[in-house]
User: Fold these one by one.
Assistant:
Number 1:
Amino acid sequence: MAYGSPERLADVPAYYADIRGGRPVRRELLDDLVGRYRSLGIEDESPLNAITEETRAALERELRDVPVFTGMKHWTPRIADAADRAVASGAGTVVGLVLAPHFSSMSIGGYKEQLQEGLAGGADFVFIDSWHDESGFVELLADRVRGTDAHVVFTAHSLPARILDAGDPYKDQLLETSQLVAELAGLTAWSFSFQSESPTGEPWLGPDILVHLSELSLEGVTSVLVCPVGFVADHLEIRWDLDHEAAERARELGMDFGRIEMPNADPAFVNVLAGLVRRALAVPSEA
Ligand code: FEC
């Protein structure tokens, strides 16, 4: 399962409405979002949806006889459609795997609910809640930051701060992944910050990367390499929020700015996903 992305600019209003889950969308925020997609040149197709399909097909090849279906949280094909197709194909067990490594009730919890409802008991259901400490994933990221002279900033999508009141593991899992990658790569200069906060009128987890870059600059850091541990593909939050907004802030602060290549459909990453699915299939359980 993946987040999903509008295929073309005309899809953005419906896509945003889906993300808002029925809550009103302010006109200026919608215009701003259309502008962000336009300036990335996403006029005709979505990079995220194409990468998701590439990853799905590669995973299916890697798993040999296990069919892999794509379901998107906020776009088509929907998670419920993927569940229907899996059940119709005669699946006895369905494994739910989200292309996002860290669990939060506000993120992975939503995918899980959609899949469970879509399956409606039509197959055994095994859900992979999180894979933030999966050794192959940690190794893949460590390989991409090892040997850098820059200060490494690990990042992930922010969420409303109230998730912490309910004991949500999201932030702890993000810090754990960052720590594991830093240790394996032998980093001494690193930190973590959130990114991509939405203006929803409530406090979100911080610090945001734009604030964090200023903090680092005051500490004398002159070069940063961003490692977005909370994402696995090139999409709006990478190509706009990091490559455009954060890069511009770094430039204003006189800092060098870089980010690692995203895993996308890299065979080493697909291999990590295949390992997760194989292990899950060995222990089927009822939903
Ligand atoms: O490239 C693309 O077209 C899609 C990029 C994209 C990814 C993504 C991942 C996550 N989000 C998470 C949480 C929230 C919460 C809200 C929210 C809002 C947006 C908006 C866009 C958007 N998100 Fe997203 N998210 C992506 C895109 N996200 C566009 C709406 C406009 C904006 O704020 O920029 C706030 C909802 C609300 O208003 O109530 C909360 C989390 C992730 C990482 C986990 C995952 O991938 O599922 C968490 C990719």
Note: Residues 47-63 form the longest helix (17 residues).
Number 2:
Amino acid sequence: MEAPPLTIAIDGPAASGKSTVGERLAKALGYLFFDTGVMYRAVTWVALQRLGSVEDEAAVTRLAEVVQIDVQPPSQNDGRQADVWVDGDDVTWAIRRPEVDQWVSRVAAYPGVRQAMTQQQRRIGLRGKVVMIGRDITTVVLPEAEAKIYLDASVEERARRRYLERKARGEEVNYEEILESLRQRDYLDSTREVAPLRVAPDAIVVNTDGLSVDEVVQKILAQIN
Ligand code: CDP
């Protein structure tokens, strides 16, 4: 068998399975798993906390430039993939709240915020042995990645997955609301001017509708080896 690619970049719309599949791939290869979405979520959370809203682009950008976001291996066995710390506070679950879902795509469209996040992500990616997931990893953050995957699924299937995920965490959930929120985020993420979500010309597109996590992981491993 050939050596696996050193950097694996995975993009795709919200809830397409990137984090579950990415984590499994990283484990299988002994690589670092890095979910870049948590960084945009962390900035959004801090902005809501400290500024009360995300409206002021200049203020949010300044925050993104100075805030210390730290992603560490999970310290607790409560279903988290990683610890996410912001200036010393554990925000791992806070950044999954609906108000963050509601505002994160707005924050992620601010060019200054993207610049601050992209620099940090690129530095980590260039060390190699990493599976990095997001919206612009294959196109902007690590265009030189040896393996590029675009994970997709229908919006209904993605809403169903997110619904089950939240329900399993004991949250109150409404399928229609989740569906609407995903549609809105898809729209904002793919129409923004800087680093929109799109399929890189050399990416392998994997549609995960009706496939189990195992099947998706096997499919990707078969493609990249
Ligand atoms: O987990 P889910 O698919 O719901 O979203 P996420 O990966 O945590 O990303 C949350 C939001 O951050 C996305 O909707 C994008 O607006 C933004 N994002 C981005 O712009 N670029 C990335 N590389 C990762 C996330």
Note: The chain has a mean pLDDT of 94.
